[in-house]
Amino acid sequence: MSRSAPDAGPERWLAALALLAICVISLGNVVVRYATDASFAFTEEFSVFLLVVLTFSGAALASRRHTHIRIELIENKLPPRLRVVLYLLQWAASVLLLALVVWYGGLLTWEEYSWESLSPGLGYPTWIYIIWLPLLCLAIIWRLTQSVLARSRACLKEQTHES
């Protein structure tokens, strides 16, 4: 990572820890299965949960660095002022979608908590797994906002240098 690349430290560490935990759990399960012909019961449940955490943490980091897969043909052809408008439209569409995930993910988390639902594999409360979805979507919204502000400032600065 270059020194000038913006960072999302907490999300980067969370993603790294989730990936490390998935690797350790999976490796341990493989070793135990080959050595004893049995496997750990918790590996699939934890691995799926950690994969979701890894995915959304990575999405927050990519949002901050503006490194998501995208098509920049129109963006590169626009003058700086119109590019800012495009950035704001992209941001608004993304925030709208993520806000829906936060809302409905929060409702689902509350329902699972109030119904005292348990996971089928280990019997843990399911809200413990689900609450990460709206929380990490909020992190993505925050990082998207940081990114759009930085990109818009850079565009407007470019506009003043061209004039």
From TrEMBL:
Annotated transmembrane regions: 12-34, 46-63, 84-106, 126-144
Pfam families referenced in this protein's UniProt entry, alphabetically: DctQ
Membrane topology qualifier: Multi-pass membrane protein
Main location per the UniProt record: membrane
Keywords (A to Z) from UniProt: Cell inner membrane, Cell membrane, Membrane, Transmembrane, Transmembrane helix, Transport
InterPro entries (UniProt xref): DctQ, TRAP_DctQ
Protein family per UniProt: Belongs to the TRAP transporter small permease family.
Function recorded in the entry: Part of the tripartite ATP-independent periplasmic (TRAP) transport system.
Complexes and interactors: The complex comprises the extracytoplasmic solute receptor protein and the two transmembrane proteins.
Listed name of the protein: TRAP transporter small permease protein
Species, as recorded: Oceanimonas baumannii
